[in-house]
């Protein structure tokens, strides 16, 4: 069974601080997605990474895919209360678009 | 991206009953999936809904408990059968619009069993 270990599971920081969320596995993924989920809604896609070593930026969010395509990170610069939510990484290992999800990181940004 | 509508958005049901959840997409999609998200947890794939044929279930999920239909390229249903309190979860459908596109999710159905 493929597993994605996501850490930390909970993070509460002050507005303006930086943070990094990690997603690690012993398996190779053909692609990896990051989603954000807010209460009462479904997960919303933030980014897809497919190439080892790839870095993508989305405003204050920076996503990196590991060289071996086994791990990924999400870095948020100058966090804002609007960044609060559940962040989920999800990997597709078989190219069949069946996703394995990490446990999620519940992020709270305090004003 | 595709607009995905799930109905009902929430329900409270008695144990032993069954509930059918609908997932409607505003355009044809190549793949549809059903996930379960237990309280405070991440998502677990239940099955891939195959158009015109039986769904493909993941380990730990069976057709008798979670029958799935997908009669066309825009619609699917998931039934949660003979419900018990352990079935209280959010049930989400997701779709792939084509090729190597990522999955997009509906807003889910919040199900509570008394």
Compile the SSE list and pairings.
The complex is a heterodimer of chains A (111) and B (114).
Chain A: E1 5-7, E2 10-14, E3 19-24, E4 31-37, E5 44-49, E6 55-58, E7 61-65, E8 71-76, E9 85-92, E10 99-101, E11 105-110
Parallel strand pairs in A: 2-11
Antiparallel strand pairs in A: 1-3, 3-8, 4-5, 4-9, 6-7, 7-8, 9-10, 9-11
Chain B: E1 4-7, E2 10-13, E3 19-25, E4 31-37, E5 43-49, E6 56-57, E7 68-72, E8 75-80, E9 89-96, E10 104-105, E11 109-113
Parallel strand pairs in B: 2-11
Antiparallel strand pairs in B: 1-3, 3-8, 4-5, 4-9, 5-6, 7-8, 9-10, 9-11
Features:
heterodimer; A: 111 residues; mainly beta; 5-stranded antiparallel sheet; B: 114 residues; 7-stranded mixed sheet; globular
Helix content of chain B: under 10%
Question: Regions of chain B with pLDDT < 50 over 5+ consecutive residues?
Answer: none
Count up the helices of chain B: 0
- Mean pLDDT of chain B comes to 95
Per the principal axes of the C-alpha atoms, what is the gross shape of chain A?
globular
Give the SSE order of chain A as H and E letters: EEEEEEEEEEE
Helix-strand makeup class of chain A: mainly beta
Tell me the span between the first and last alpha carbons of chain A: 40 Å
Beta percentage of chain A is over 45%
What is the string of helix and strand elements of chain B?
EEEEEEEEEEE
Shape of chain B: globular
Rg result of chain A: 13 Å
Number of strands of chain B: 11
Helix content of chain A: under 10%
Mean pLDDT of chain A: 94
């Amino acid at each position: 069974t493929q597993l994605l270990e996501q850490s930390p599971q909970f993070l509460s920081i002050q507005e303006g601080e930086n943070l990094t969320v990690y997603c690690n596995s012993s398996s190779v993924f053909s692609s990896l997605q990051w989603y954000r989920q807010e209460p009462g809604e479904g997960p919303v896609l933030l980014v897809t990474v497919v190439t080892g070593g790839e870095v993508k930026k989305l405003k204050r969010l920076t996503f990196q895919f590991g060289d071996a395509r086994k791990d990924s990170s999400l870095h948020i610069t100058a966090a804002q209360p609007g960044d609060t939510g559940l962040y989920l990484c999800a990997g597709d290992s078989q190219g069949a678009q069946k996703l394995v999800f990490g446990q999620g990181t519940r992020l709270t940004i305090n004003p | 991206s595709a607009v995905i509508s799930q109905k009902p958005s929430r329900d409270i049901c008695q144990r032993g009953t069954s509930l059918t959840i609908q997932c409607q997409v505003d355009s044809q999609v190549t793949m549809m999936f059903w996930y379960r998200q237990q309280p405070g947890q991440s998502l677990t794939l239940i099955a891939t809904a195959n158009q015109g044929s039986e769904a493909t279930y993941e380990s730990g999920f069976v057709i008798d408990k979670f029958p799935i239909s997908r009669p066309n390229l825009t619609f699917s249903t998931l039934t949660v059968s003979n419900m018990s309190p352990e079935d209280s979860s959010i049930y989400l459908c997701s779709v792939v619009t084509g090729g190597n596109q990522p999955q997009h999710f509906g807003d889910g159905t919040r199900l509570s069993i008394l």
